[in-house]
Every structure is written in structure tokens, then in C-alpha cells.
Design a protein that fits this description.
The complex is a heterotrimer of chains A (633), B (329) and C (317). Chain A has 633 residues and is of the alpha/beta class. Chain A folds into 3 domains: 1-107 and 227-273, Rossmann fold, CATH 3.40.50.300; 290-413 and 494-619, P-loop containing nucleotide triphosphate hydrolases (Rossmann fold), CATH 3.40.50.300; 424-492, no CATH class. Chain A is 40% helix and 21% strand. In chain A, helix 5 packs across helix 7 (173-186). Chain B has 12 helices and no strands. Chain B has helices at residues 11-19, 32-44, 47-67, 70-87, 124-160, 162-177, 180-191, 195-222, 225-232, 237-273, 285-292, 301-328. In chain C, helix 1 (2-30) runs antiparallel to helix 13, helix 5 packs across helix 11 and helix 11 packs across helix 12 (265-274). The radius of gyration of chain C is 24 Å and the shape is flat. Classes of the chains: A alpha/beta (633), B mainly alpha (329), C mainly alpha (317).
């Protein structure tokens, strides 16, 4: 049947049946050592049969608590303090464990968050799935094995018989996620709750699995509740989106309504912050310069971040091509010795002849999924690892073989900002001690000049001076990352390595940190080498992008060129997997006035790409588009 | 990704979220223009004061959390009592531990003799107090040796790694293969009897475990990003060891040190119970219990009360160790 | 894969045993300024009464006049061939002494170990499974009392209550199975308490793991989750500890047999140390190390059955 028919069928079912889930004015509180705090307040949510609903929120929004409450799996100390939950018509608000058990698996299935740890490591896959199949009650012992294989196959696992005999650690993350989907499906539930179903996976894998999950629930008429931090994922997948903040629903509606005309300020901030959700359906690209040949295209896609700080970068690029780059990675290869293995392979080539130049005053984004070798490249460039072959040049000076002592004076010139602000600051150090440590290590300045520098640095990263005496535990993730940035700037370096500097942060905070980094670059003339797994995030900061896949640079060029006209299939797949694009595209056909379209050719190319590259199941993306267009018109 | 966790939320995490230790959307991350100027004013107002008051606040908070645990307070008081009695045993008693009073022999516990009297009419409570001098000395010596040697070994092997580490770990395996008490027996056989050989014997038994914990803590901390951050900030290895690694690996090591006090007390009293301790009439706790065995039928308190006392002391130490661990979290 | 794992473990066990022997040799023969004096003292001979000639012949008799490495290898060879030398204080072959004393200690050790496992695993499982608040609290606090009490105090308390007051079991001796009860309980309590502490904690940790949420979301019952999912994962740290504890059984027996005056290896150890009878002490220590090594070898071989990652997993370090 065609996609349109599918949609109408769902809506017909919708009207006929009682809802699967009916949550009315739900409040959940956690209490600890006598203190009580509200995690969810006054939440009302109804999920109809066959409907896909997404709850979007950042950490602390109460979205996971809502899902916990629904399954009766609140952590100890958490309790429903008000409102009611009805599942399949029956009140389960304060139901006994026995009643809740009969619901779990049979009425509501769960796809948990992190597939790497959500399977029992000591049991084979088969028995773990069988437990769920057996809950159906009507499966005779004889056909149990066959049922297990069938449900594994349905979840999209190749060679299900082999998989059933394997242990979780023998499967990749994507395969484990499919096993978890199989487990959720095994009890033939009416609703599947997917809690951050793919945030632990690479984007391309994430897209394939979400597509598959969605086609499964559609075919079987199962409702789906997606819990996610990513408005893009929610908008792409859901019929209805709830935006939560601080335990409350701040906005809900169809994705198109919310995205096009958000009623709440918070939603607007989320949309602005979501990398893939610019209003014209394209990824925001901060530095559109560098694409000299394309002329007019340069100004078109500039968006919110760029609006605030107009970058002088374009001119730098134009003139800077002949100057010596501040950092040159030339043909760097790194092999790691493997422990003896039966396959006989002795070395593992982490990166292979990688060459990247970082021009002075610019940002180069290095993008790759896990295992692509981006971290190895970074460590080699930092002098933390010696390459097997190739050279690293800093302002034309070869530093490849420099020892710690020789490199030390240069360390003042290049610094690193770590991925995880929760572990990159010594918990015993105050903020001031952490920031000033490089100065102390290098013996720069005296007490007075250091404390002046501290105030200056805190000011630069927009932290109050009083923070100098706080410890990391008293700061939020974003604040910690500001401290880490201030520390990296303490020695007035010329080049800063950014190792996934925002991937551990909530999207709205990501936006703030990226803006800060951009402002600092403009003010201080810094150069950045920006490592990230997320193409969309890189686009917000980078002048140039290098895409790394399995240790090889598959594409390199000005950001705008890579995005508008990707050359390698891998880059195309990466771009295609950025959540939010399917939804955001809608207004292009539906309501042209909703977003200023700067460059018609660009938009067209993006639409064409979506049509041609949509992966299995092929009906998915167009179906969503059509549906949204209906809504929009 | 440290995003919203799944259904697995432990209580702490749940709380962290609700109280917004991370970036809660409700409390925007950026202080903003006005906040920045606010802070400037604050800074001019003098932040040393703020620092001191913050420190005092943390201290007060810790004190508050300790006081919330009456069990812990009792345990700490008991240990303080034992330590004082070990240094000044005469503070808590007016009897002489060695003066025999045949008339008063084998008296049951009473107000005059809290623990009763022994076969020579000596006040048992007094003998326990004076015994704590010996036992606590031996324990202190044993734990001090263990801490110094174990800490040094653990830090060196954990920090430098490589072949030193490999050899050390093999050595620890061997030391663990000989049960502690038996190893102590071997050492006592070689060194002879008395308080000092016993302390050495017990210390040797504690060192491997202590060194191992230190090593693993150092290793854990050594690989954390903030060490690398300090390194890229140009800090020397010595600075990293002293300023970053030691302060941050100290916690669990300290917990184990307190626990090992209890272990050492048990081991030392076991050795003196077996008759390898100080020569009479001086008596360690274990010796007192062993002596009382001969009168178990008629005067059970002679063995049981000192035994109970040892048990209480060890239990208190274990409880303190466990509480510190919980408070550190 | 498994064969390589096994051979590696066996080799390691042999190495540890050899090293344990070496350590005791160093401590017993190289540490004292003059082993002969210790030997004489053990034989109740006054050193000052012995002429230099006699001393020399004594040294020769015990091989102490030879270079250290010769002594070391001669003894190592003797130990490997089961010749543990002669007791100085008792003037009988050590092998014979050990043979006499072993059965009593084995019986005591085995019953104590069995009791400790039952008590430890039972307490931990109940403490985690119990839903009645006070029972849960009581069960989880119990082990910390067990590890704090001096074992000999527990032994004396047991004698006082069950032998003298109630007269259920004999207070001393090693005649008949009844005499095993009290010393077994005394030996089992600290072991069981430690085991329960570790197992309770690892069970609780395992129940906090994400895969338990997966299991709960399937609608499985609490008992299935605890036994099928959590217990297997929690068993590993407890098993490691159990290895260490079982290996120390002989040591526990030293105190237990002294308290209950049983003629076992433990009491022999205590007597020999008191008499500074070096050959006997060394033989007992090497035997204890051998027991430890064997127990832990068995446990190493059980590991992969509980956690498939141990053998299947790629070696990466």
C-alpha cells in the first residue's frame, strides 16, 4: 500500500480504539535524605494505537522519568506523587509488582538506551530473547527456538541462528541494538518505548536502525514512544512531539507545527540549537567562505550563530592559501601492534597517510565515526603518540620526532580542550587553580599577574570571577567546559585542539559553547583543529572539513563545498543521516514563505539527495514528507 | 555521551538531574551580561573571604553529615577512648595492672571491677587498658610500615608501569598465595617472639594488598583526562604525581588504611593469643584472652570480656572505614 | 582457546608455588643471623654448651655448611620429591607428622568451608532479596559483625555456651563428628561474613546494571532476575574472594585447633613456631601455598564457564 494510505489507515484506527496509554496530570518526586524534589510535574500524555509520539528534552527534563513511571520501573526513592497512569484501559498508577509485570513485555516493550550494556554479558543471545518470547504464554516449547530465530530475523539481524548462539560481546553495537528491538517485539506488545534508542551509536547506524524500527511498528500497528534529546530525531520520526523542560511539558503538537511555528521560547532555542534543523532544511554552516568559485552562495546559509558574530574568516581564507599553515599533518600513518591473534594479523593501521593543514586563524573540522582514527590523528598531532610514518609540522617546523623536552616550549603555543568536561578537571582543584596550572607549570608571571590573568580569562569565557574558588563538582557541564577552555587559553596559544568539545553537553549548551569558541577565535585570532563525530556540529565552527573513514581521509575541502556537493559516498551517507532533515525539508514544497531560501540550487540538491539516498525501507522518508506536507498545507 | 540516562537511573543520578548539577534547561548555562558584571562586583568585594567561607561551609556540611550518623559518632568516640587509654592508661583507672590481690581473685564484673578480676586478683579492666598500650603500639607500627612500604610500592609501580610493574604484580601474587597468618608465623619463627616481630610479621601480610589498591588507584587516576590536560599544559611528571595523582588516589587508600587497623588488631591479638607476643606479666589483648581460657568454666568473663572489647574496637574501625567510603561518594 | 587458557593458568600456578617456596626459604634460612642457633633452641639445647666441633657437625648434618644456592636447590629437589626433612623438636620425619595430622584438619576444613559457603551465599541472597525492611537491614549488617569479632573469641564463646552451658557438643578434642561442629562454626563465621559482604555488594551492583532493566522490562519475576541474571554476574568477585578464603583454610585451622585442642596441622604449626622448628614450619607453609594455588587454579578454570568474555574476549593488554 502507498504511504498515504498507511497514514489514513493509522488515523482511522486512531479514532476507533481506546488509547494504549493515558497519563493524566502525572507528578513524580524523588526523595533522598528527607529532601524531596519533583522530577515530573503535571504531565498529561495520551498515546493512541499505532501512533508514534516523541518526548524531547535535555538532561533533567524528566523525559526518562516519565518512561520509567510508565513501566513501573522508577528507581528507588522515586514515587508517583500525583495523577494517574492508565495502560490499555486499566489504572496502573500504584499497581502491584504483579500487575506491572503482566504489562511489561506483553503490553509495553522497552528498547533501552545503551545497547552496549543492556544485554546480560553472561548469557547467550538466544536465551535472552527466549525469555521474552516465553512471556507470550502461548508458545509451545517445541517452537520456541523457531520463534526466537524469527523475531531476531524480524529485527533485521543477518544469520539469526548464529546470533542466537553468540554472546553479547561478540556482536557490534548496532547488532546488539537489533537484539534489544527483537526482545521488545518478542512479547508482541502494543506499545514500544524507545529510550534514546540510538544515541550510543554512530549516526549512519542510528539512521538505519531507526528506519527499521519505525517500519516494524508501522507494519504491526504498534505504538511507539521515543524518548530523545534530539529534536531532529523526534521531528523525523514522530506523529506528535512533546517538548519537556524541568519536568513539565512546555509544548506539544505535530512536528511541522512545532518546527515552523514554535509557541514557546524554549522550543525555539532547541530548534536553533539543533544542528540539523535550520529552517530551510540545510545544516547551518557558519563559515560559508572559501567557496570562491561559487560566489553568491557564500552569504546564503549564514544562520543564527553567524548572525551574532560576523566572521572575517572568508577574507582570511582567500588570502591565506599561500601562507604557511600553523599546523601541517603530512602523510601520517600510525600502526598499532596487535596481541597475537589466530588471524595472524600483527598490526592494526589506525590512520593511513592522513594529510591535513590547519591555516592560521581558521578552524579545520575533522569528522569521523568511532574507530575512524580521528582521535589517533589528534594524539599524533599533539605529540602524545609517535607516528609510524609521516611528519607533523608546526609553523613549518618539524616536530615529529621532538622529545618531551624539545616540545615543551612549543606546548605554550598549542593547547587541548578535552571531550568530557566531567573528567578533564581535577576534582580537587578549584577553578582558579585549574585555569592557572599551565602558568604555574611554565613559571609564567607572579602571583599578582596570575590573578589578573585569571580574572581576564574568566571574563573571556563569560564566567563570573567568583567562580575562581569553586570546585568542578559545583559547576554544570557547560560551565566546566568553559573552565577547560579558559585553561587552554591561559598560555595565549595560537592553536587549540578541540576534541569533541561539546559532545557531552546538552544541545542548547552546545550552541553556547560553540558560539563562545567562535567569538574567541575572532577576538584572539586562534586556530582550531576541531575533532567531532558530528558533521552538523562541525559545520557550525569549521572553515574547512576533512572527513575520515577507517583511517583514510575520504574528503577534504571548504565546509560549504563539502556540504553542498559531497564527493564521497561516505560523506553523503553521513550528511543523509543527520536527524531533522526529513522534516525540515517539508516547507520547501509546502509553504515557501516559512524560511528564506538563499540558494535555490543548494536546496534542490539537498532534496534530490534525500530522494536518491534514502536507505531501506525506502518508503520511509517520502512517506514522512507527504504526511507533513498534508499537515502543512 | 553524558546525556539523559536510561531507566537505569540510580538514585544519585536521578537526584543529580533533578537538582540540576548538570545543565538543566531551567537554569541556563550562560550567566549572561548582567551576571558577568555582577560577578565583577563580587570579585572586587574580595573573593578570599568567599573562599574561606566556602571552605568553612564545606567543613560544616561534612560535620553535619557525620553527626547525622549516631553510630559513626559512637564508633569514633570509642576509638578516641582506646587511643587515649593506650597513651595514658592511668587516666581511666586507679588500679595497678600488675599488683596482685589474692583475696580479690576471680571476682565477677562489678562496679568496683568493671571486667572483674583475674586469677591473681588483678583488675581485668585495668589490664585491658594497659594491654591496649602494647596492642595499639604494635598495630600502629604494623600499619605504619604497611602504609609507607605499600604506598611507595603502589605509587612507583602504578606510576611508572613497565617491567617494574610486571615484576611487582607477580610478587604480589606470590605474597597473596601465602595466607597472611601463616606468613606471619614464618616471620615470627625467623625473628623470634615479642611485640616488634609481631608488628613486622603483620605488616608484611598487609603490604601486598595495600600496594595493590594504591597501584590500581594511581593507574585509574593516571589515565583520566585531567592528567593529560595537565600534561599538555606543560606540567612535569613530578608535579602531576604530587599535585594531581596523590590527592586524587588518596581516598580509597585511606579507607583501606583504616580498615587495615582493624585487620592488624585482629592479627596481632591472634598471634599473641597463640603465645607469640610480649612476655608476661605484660599482656596484649590476645594474651589476656588466652590466659582466661583456663578459667572458662568458672569465670568466663576473663576471656569473653576482653574478647568482646577487641571485637567492639575492630567493629568500630570497620564502621568508620565504611562510613568514610560512603561520605566520600 | 580454552586449552591455551588452561595451560597458561597451570604454568602460572606452578610459578607461584615455586616463588612461595623461595620466599619461605629466604625468610627462614637467610633472615635469622644463625639458623643453627634456632635449630639448637628448637632441640632444647643450650647453645653455650655446644663445642665448635659439635656445631660444625650439626651444620654439616643440616647441610648448612654448604653454599646457600646448594642448600636452596638441594631442598627444592627434596620438596619436589616429597621429602620435607626431619622435625627438630620431635625427631621424626616431617612427612610422617603431616600424614598423622592431615585427616583431622581436612575434615575440619571441609566442613567449615561448606558451612561458610552456605551461610555466606544464603545471607547475601536473602539480604538482597528480602523486601521486609528490618530483615534486609539486619541481614546486611550481620556480616560486618562477623568480620569484626576475633575468631578465638567466637570459639571461646561457642565453648562457653554450647559445651559448658548447654552441653550439646564437646568442648575440645577431635573424636567423632560432633567434635567438628563448634570448630567448624568458628572457622566458618569470618569466611562466611566476608563472602556475604562481597556477594551482597556485587549482587546489588549487578541488580543496578542496565541489563537488569532489560530483563525487568521483559516482565520477568524478581527471583528469575536475581538468580538467572544477577547472580551469575555477581558470582565472579565472590568467587575470587572465595578462592582467597579457601586457600587460607589451613591458617584458620591454626587458631581453631589451638582453641579446641585438636591434633591437626594447625596445632602442629602453632607448636612448631613456638619451638621454632624450621623444617616443620616450612613444610606447612609450602603445603598451605600448594593448597591455595590448587584452589585458585580450579577457580580460574571455573571462571570462563560463568563469564564467557574471559576466554572468548580478545586479549588487548
Amino acid at each position: 500500500m502507498s504511504a498515504t494510505e498507511a497514514v489514513t489507515a493509522v488515523e482511522a484506527v486512531d479514532a476507533r480504539q481506546t488509547p494504549i496509554v493515558e497519563i493524566n496530570n502525572l507528578s513524580v518526586t524523588y526523595s533522598r535524605e528527607g529532601r524531596k524534589s519533583a522530577a515530573v510535574s503535571d504531565l498529561t500524555l495520551i498515546i493512541a494505537a499505532g501512533e508514534t509520539v516523541a518526548i524531547v528534552g535535555e538532561s533533567g527534563s524528566g523525559k526518562s522519568t516519565t518512561a520509567n513511571a510508565l513501566l513501573g520501573l522508577l528507581p528507588s526513592g522515586g514515587e508517583v506523587s500525583g495523577g494517574s497512569i492508565r495502560i490499555d484501559g486499566a489504572d496502573t498508577t500504584r499497581a502491584s509488582e504483579k500487575v506491572l509485570r503482566s504489562i511489561r513485555g506483553r503490553v509495553i516493550g522497552l528498547v533501552p538506551q545503551d545497547p552496549m550494556v543492556a544485554l546480560n554479558p553472561t548469557l547467550r543471545i538466544g536465551p535472552q530473547v527466549a525469555e521474552a518470547v516465553r512471556r507470550r504464554g502461548d508458545v509451545p516449547k517445541r517452537s520456541l527456538d523457531a520463534e526466537v530465530v524469527e523475531v531476531l530475523e524480524a529485527a533485521g539481524l543477518d544469520n539469526p541462528v548464529l546470533r542466537a548462539r553468540q554472546y553479547p560481546h561478540e556482536l557490534s553495537g548496532g547488532m546488539r541494538q537489533r537484539v534489544l528491538i527483537a526482545i521488545a517485539l518478542a512479547g508482541r506488545p502494543q506499545l514500544i518505548v524507545a529510550d534514546e534508542p540510538t544515541s550510543a551509536l554512530d549516526v549512519t547506524v542510528q539512521k538505519r536502525i531507526l528506519d527499521h524500527l519505525q517500519s516494524l511498528v508501522r507494519d504491526r500497528g504498534i505504538s511507539l514512544l521515543i524518548i530523545t534529546h534530539d529534536l531532529g530525531v523526534a521531528a523525523d520520526r514522530a506523529d506528535r512531539v512533546l517538548v519537556m523542560q524541568g519536568g513539565r511539558v512546555v509544548e506539544q503538537g505535530r512536528p511541522a507545527e512545532i518546527l515552523v511555528a514554535p509557541a514557546e521560547d524554549y522550543t525555539r532555542r532547541l530548534i536553533a540549537a539543533a544542528p540539523g534543523l535550520s529552517s530551510d532544511g540545510r545544516v547551518k554552516i557558519r563559515h560559508a567562505g572559501g567557496s570562491a568559485a561559487r560566489g553568491g552562495a557564500a552569504t546564503g546559509p549564514a544562520t543564527s550563530v553567524a548572525d551574532r558574530a560576523v566572521a572575517p574568516a572568508g577574507s582570511v581564507t582567500a588570502g591565506g592559501d599561500t601562507a604557511t599553515p600553523i599546523l601541517s599533518i603530512v602523510g601520517v600513518t600510525k600502526d598499532y601492534r596487535l596481541p597475537r591473534s589466530p588471524e595472524g594479523q600483527r598490526t592494526f593501521r589506525a590512520i593511513d597517510a592522513v594529510s591535513i593543514d590547519v591555516p592560521a586563524g581558521q578552524t579545520v573540522g575533522l569528522v569521523g565515526e568511532s574507530g575512524s582514527g580521528k582521535t589517533t590523528t589528534l594524539r599524533v598531532a599533539l605529540g602524545l603518540e609517535k607516528p609510524t610514518a609521516g611528519r607533523v609540522l608546526f609553523e613549518g617546523v618539524d616536530i615529529t620526532d621532538a622529545g618531551w623536552r624539545e616540545l615543551r616550549p612549543l606546548r605554550k603555543r598549542f593547547q587541548l580542550v578535552h571531550q568530557n568536561p566531567f573528567s578533564s578537571l581535577d576534582p580537587k582543584f578549584t577553578v582558579g587553580q585549574s585555569i592557572l596550572e599551565p602558568l604555574v607549570s611554565f613559571g609564567v608571571g607572579d602571583r599578582a599577574s596570575r590573578s589578573a590573568r585569571l580574572r581576564e580569562l574568566l571574563d573571556q569565557v563569560a564566567l563570573p570571577a567568583a567562580f575562581a574558588d569553586r570546585r568542578p563538582a559545583e559547576l554544570s557541564g557547560g560551565q566546566r567546559q568553559r573552565v577547560a577552555i579558559a585553561r587552554a587559553l591561559a598560555l595565549k596559544p595560537d592553536l587549540v585542539f578541540l576534541d569533541e568539545p561539546v559532545s557531552a553537553l546538552d544541545v542548547s549548551v552546545q550552541e553556547q559553547i560553540l558560539t563562545l569558541l567562535a567569538t574567541l577565535q575572532d577576538e584572539l585570532g586562534l586556530s582550531y583543529l576541531f575533532i567531532s563525530h558530528d558533521l552538523a556540529v562541525v559545520a557550525q565552527l569549521a572553515h574547512r572539513v576533512a572527513v575520515l573513514n577507517r583511517g583514510v581521509v575520504v574528503e577534504q575541502g571548504a565546509t560549504i563545498d563539502v556540504f553542498a556537493n559531497p564527493q564521497s559516498d561516505y560523506t553523503k551517507a553521513l550528511l543523509d543521516a543527520i536527524p531533522g532533515r526529513a522534516t525540515a525539508i517539508a516547507p520547501v514544497g509546502g509553504s515557501a514563505d516559512s524560511a528564506p531560501v538563499g540558494d535555490g540550487a543548494d536546496a534542490a540538491s539537498v532534496v534530490a539527495k534525500n530522494a536518491s539516498l534514502a536507505t531501506a525501507p525506502s518508503a520511509n522518508a517520502p512517506a514522512a514528507n507527504e504526511k507533513l506536507q498534508e499537515v502543512a498545507s | 555521551m553524558a546525556l539523559d540516562t536510561a531507566f537505569t537511573t540510580s538514585l544519585e543520578e536521578a537526584e543529580e538531574r533533578t537538582f540540576g548539577a548538570r545543565d538543566t534547561p531551567g537554569a541556563p548555562d550562560v550567566p549572561g551580561e548582567s551576571a558577568a558584571s555582577d560577578s565583577e562586583r563580587l570579585a572586587k568585594a574580595g573573593h578570599p573571604v568567599a573562599a574561606r567561607s566556602a571552605r568553612r561551609e564545606r567543613l560544616a556540611y561534612t560535620a553535619h553529615r557525620v553527626l547525622r550518623r549516631p553510630g559513626l559518632v559512637v564508633a569514633i568516640l570509642l576509638i578516641i577512648f582506646v587511643i587515649i587509654s593506650a597513651v595514658f592508661p592511668f587516666v581511666f583507672t586507679h588500679y595497678d595492672p600488675y599488683a596482685t590481690v589474692p583475696i580479690d581473685k576471680l571476682k565477677a564484673p562489678s562496679l568496683a571491677h568493671l571486667f572483674g578480676t583475674d586469677e591473681l586478683g588483678r583488675d581485668l579492666f585495668t589490664r585491658v587498658l594497659y594491654g591496649s598500650t602494647l596492642t595499639i603500639q604494635a598495630t600502629l607500627a604494623a600499619v605504619a610500615i604497611a602504609i609507607v612500604v605499600g604506598l611507595a610500592l603502589g605509587v612507583v609501580t602504578g606510576f611508572f608501569g613497565g617491567w617494574i610493574d610486571v615484576i611487582f604484580m607477580r610478587f604480589v601474587d606470590v605474597m597473596l598465595a601465602i595466607p597472611r597468618l601463616l606468613l606471619a608465623l614464618v616471620i615470627v619463627t625467623a625473628l623470634g617472639f615479642g611485640t616488634i616481630p609481631i608488628s613486622i610479621a603483620v605488616a608484611v601480610g598487609i603490604v601486598p594488598g595495600f600496594a595493590r589498591i594504591t597501584r590500581s588507584e594511581v593507574l585509574k587516576v593516571k589515565n583520566l583526562p585531567y592528567i593529560e590536560a595537565a600534561r599538555t599544559g606543560g606540567a612535569s611528571w613530578l608535579r602531576i604525581l604530587v599535585r594531581h595523582i596523590l590527592p586524587n588516589s588518596w581516598g580509597p587508600v585511606f579507607v583501606l588504611a583504616v580498615l587495615d587497623f582493624g585487620v592488624a588488631i585482629l592479627a596481632i591479638s591472634a598471634l599473641s593469643f597463640l603465645g607469640f607476643g610480649a612476655a608476661p606479666p605484660a599482656a596484649e589483648w590476645g594474651t589476656l584472652i588466652a590466659n582466661g581460657r583456663n578459667f572458662l568454666i568458672t569465670s568466663p568473663w576473663l576471656s569473653l570480656l576482653p574478647g568482646l572489647f577487641v571485637g567492639l574496637v575492630v567493629f568500630s574501625l570497620n564502621h568508620i572505614s565504611k562510613s568514610i567510603e560512603e561520605l566520600q561518594r | 582457546m580454552y586449552a591455551r587458557y588452561v595451560s597458561g593458568r597451570v604454568l602460572q600456578a606452578v610459578l607461584v608455588l615455586w616463588a612461595a617456596y623461595t620466599v619461605t626459604f629466604i625468610v627462614l634460612y637467610l633472615l635469622p643471623s644463625d639458623p643453627v642457633q634456632l635449630l639448637l633452641a628448637a632441640g632444647n639445647v643450650d647453645v653455650t654448651q655446644v663445642s665448635p666441633d659439635q656445631l660444625a657437625s650439626l651444620k654439616h648434618q643440616y647441610g648448612l655448611d654448604q653454599p646457600v644456592y646448594v642448600q636452596y636447590f638441594t631442598q627444592l629437589f627434596n620438596f619436589v620429591t616429597g621429602n620435607f626433612g626431619e622435625s627438630i623438636s620431635k625427631n621424626v620425619p616431617v612427612t610422617q607428622l603431616l600424614g598423622q595430622r592431615l585427616p583431622s584438619t581436612l575434615a575440619l576444613g571441609a566442613s567449615a568451608v561448606a558451612l561458610a559457603i552456605v551461610l555466606g551465599v544464603g545471607t547475601a541472597s536473602l539480604a538482597v532479596f528480602a523486601r521486609v525492611k528490618w530483615l534486609k537491614v539486619a541481614l546486611s549488617r550481620l556480616p560486618s559483625i562477623g568480620v569484626s569479632l576475633p575468631p578465638f573469641f567466637v570459639g571461646l564463646l561457642l565453648i562457653q555456651v554450647f559445651a559448658f552451658q548447654l552441653r550439646w557438643f564437646p568442648a575440645t578434642g577431635d573424636k567423632g563428628p560432633q567434635s567438628l561442629v563448634l570448630p567448624s562454626i568458628m572457622m566458618a563465621i569470618p569466611t562466611a561474613a566476608l563472602l556475604a559482604q562481597v556477594l551482597t555488594r556485587s549482587l546489588e551492583d549487578a541488580l543496578d546494571e542496565p541489563y537488569v532493566v532489560t530483563a525487568r522490562a521483559k516482565g520477568l519475576s524478581r527471583s528469575v532476575i536475581q538468580w538467572k541474571h544477577a547472580f551469575r554476574n555477581a558470582a565472579l568477585p565472590a568467587l575470587t574472594l572465595l578462592g582467597l578464603l579457601l586457600g587460607a583454610t589451613l591458617t584458620e585451622a591454626v587458631v581453631a585447633e589451638t582453641v579446641f585442642t585438636r591434633n591437626g596441622i594447625g596445632e602442629l604449626a602453632q607448636e612448631s613456631v613456638l619451638a621454632q622448628d624450621i623444617p616443620v614450619v616450612q613444610a606447612i607453609v609450602v603445603m598451605a601455598a600448594a593448597l591455595f594455588v590448587v584452589v585458585n587454579l580450579v577457580i580460574d578454570l571455573i571462571y570462563p564457564l560463568l563469564d564467557p568474555r574471559i576466554v572468548h574476549g580478545q586479549r588487548v593488554t
